[in-house]
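testing teh design pipeline on a random one, pls ignore if ur not involved
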């Protein structure tokens, strides 16, 4: 599950790294707005509990991104889906692997379209077995 404390630790390390790099280049003033709260305020987290919710979220993602981008000066640039296949393997409904593959392929196709339309990177993390 998502660990907000770990996200804060990573944001803190990133801010320190960026500030040090900017100071070395003489651009300290350019990154003053880049703070831990700024980073954390721009992380949107959606937890899904089953494959139906996952499919629904992917179907709504285009609208969600458009809505968030219209409200913020900082557009969405990264989507991370962890783990794309876990919920399909956890449920015993997909004994027919071809059906599971078709659904996952459709989701990946939708994510690819969203990536191109919104100019976002999409990272799919898969649970290894």
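output:
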């Amino acid at each position: 599950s998502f660990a907000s404390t770990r996200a804060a630790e990573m944001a803190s390390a990133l801010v320190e790294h960026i500030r040090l790099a900017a100071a070395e280049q003489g651009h300290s003033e350019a990154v003053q707005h880049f703070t831990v709260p700024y980073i954390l305020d721009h992380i949107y987290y959606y937890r899904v509990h089953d494959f139906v919710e996952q499919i629904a979220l992917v179907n709504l993602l285009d609208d969600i991104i458009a809505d968030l981008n219209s409200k913020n000066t900082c557009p969405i640039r990264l989507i991370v889906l962890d783990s794309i296949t876990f919920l399909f393997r956890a449920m015993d409904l997909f004994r027919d692997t071809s059906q599971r593959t078709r659904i996952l392929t459709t989701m990946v196709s939708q994510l690819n379209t969203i990536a191109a339309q919104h100019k976002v990177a999409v990272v799919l993390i898969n649970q290894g077995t």
